[in-house]
Amino acid sequence: LGGLRFALIAVALLVTMRGASTLEYGRQVLGEVPALFYMAAGLAVWFGGKGRDSWWRLIGAGLLLGLSIVTKSQNLLVIAPALLIGWVANLIWYRSVPQRFFLVTGIVTAGVVALWQGYQVLYLGPSTWQENLTLLQTAASGAAFVFSTDLMLRSLGELLSLKVFLFMLPIFLAYGVLLALPRSRRGVMWGVILLLVGVNLVWYVTASIGWIRYAFPGLALTTLFAAALFDDLFGSIFWEWRAWGREIRSGITPEFPVYLALVGTVVLAALVLAPLSVTAKAIAAPPANASGAMAAWMDANVPQDALVETWEPEMGFLTDHNYHFPPAGLLDTGIGFVWREGAAPADTYQFVQENRPPYVLVGPFAKWVLLYDDALKAEDYGLLHSEGGYDLYAAGAPA
Predict the structure, then answer these.
(1) What 3-state class would DSSP assign to 361?
(2) What's the CA gap between 376 and 357, in Å, rounded?
(3) Distance between CA atoms of residues 225 and 87, nearest Å
(4) Which CB contacts under 8 angstroms, 24+ apart, belong to 72-75?
(5) Between vectors from CA 246 to CA 241 and to CA 251, what angle results, nearest 5°?
(6) CB 388 within 8 A of CB 293
(7) Residue 311 dihedral angles phi and psi, to the nearest 5°
(8) Where are the beta strands (DSSP E) in the chain?
(9) Predicted TM-score (pTM) of this structure
């Protein structure tokens, strides 16, 4: 899509922009960053070839886009509509690439997703696969298809906030529209990216629960529009620092485009350095490691074979204790309780009351949804130890 300067700007924005949070998501066991890798690789294969749309190139693009969906199922809501709308747009507006450009890529993408589902049926068995599918549908209805006016306003406010390109998202999206308008192969390429961004951000605002994480693919790809804007700005005025310096030393007043380039440089520096400073501060001066401290205390004081009830999944990685976690389906209930004023998870989850485990570990997540508050009050549990936001209760301990 561009030269080295374009690429460097895009990467700098992708890595530093707080709205996308690439560094944070990349450290977690989540699908956003690897799914973005597959998506970007698929676009690179798809758009390459200098106009020679070989079958192997289209198949390769479909395989990579399919892997993006398999890695992060949310991307199905982004890639599938974008491919369909792009195919229609090429028929009506662009007429610049053969139909197989979209059809072969789309069919292979769908095939990868179908093969993955088929593999799960064979490996897990039909009943377990059906249970997982039902769980996914339940989660989607509670987080991906909400359609709440209050959440729409909140989501829109997130996109127009300081942490998303310093309030400049509308400018970059508008430039993306300009890039996608020409009836050419290059216009088709930018049009596909614009559709991926647009579908994701429209869904994020209108239908999702409003977590900024759900806008990750759209915001990540928007860095390409931003990079193109700055690259075109600098390239179109043939800006060259040494020539400008000679003009200043000679007493010649620089031309207007030079000032425009200088403003662009300041803006770009702010877009990169301001969020980078926030991230650097968080890395250099992190908060106290409460989960690590609690894990160390439990290793020293709690028998590993004793049952510990908790809804803090990180503890399962940090120690080898015998944890019992609530079922995955309870997550949707928790989301509904916090975001949609629904029923509390504690109304339906009665494990502590019914089984009375020796220990209950209450951390930030359980406190967020008030999961164990009533159970700990009703049963004979006392606070045994606290570390940061983690509280360990033991049955029979003094209150």
Answers:
(1) strand
(2) 11
(3) 21
(4) 72/31, 72/32, 72/34, 72/35, 73/31, 73/136, 74/31, 74/144, 74/214, 74/217, 75/35, 75/39, 75/217
(5) 125
(6) yes
(7) -120, 35
(8) 307-310, 322-324, 359-362, 381-387, 390-395
(9) 0.86
Nearest to residue 319, comparing CAs of 255, 392, 219?
392
pLDDT in tens, 322-374: 999 999 888 888 888 888 788 899 999 999 999 999 999 999 999 999 999 88
The amino acid present at 60, given as its one-letter code, is: G
* String of DSSP letters for 261-277: HHHHHHHHHHHHHHHHH
Q: What six digits make up the tokens of 93?
A: 């507006």
Beta bridge partners of 389: none
Q: Which residues contact 224 (CB under 8 A, 6 or more apart)?
A: 1, 10, 176, 193
Q: Distance (Å, rounded) from C-alpha 123 to C-alpha 117? A: 10
Token digits of residue 86: 């792009």
Residues 124 and 102 sit within 8 Å (Cβ to Cβ): no
Residue 167's nearest CA partner among 369, 384, 19 is: 19
Query: Which run of H or E residues covers position 111?
Result: helix 100-124
Query: Which residue has 């069919």 as its token pair?
Result: 107
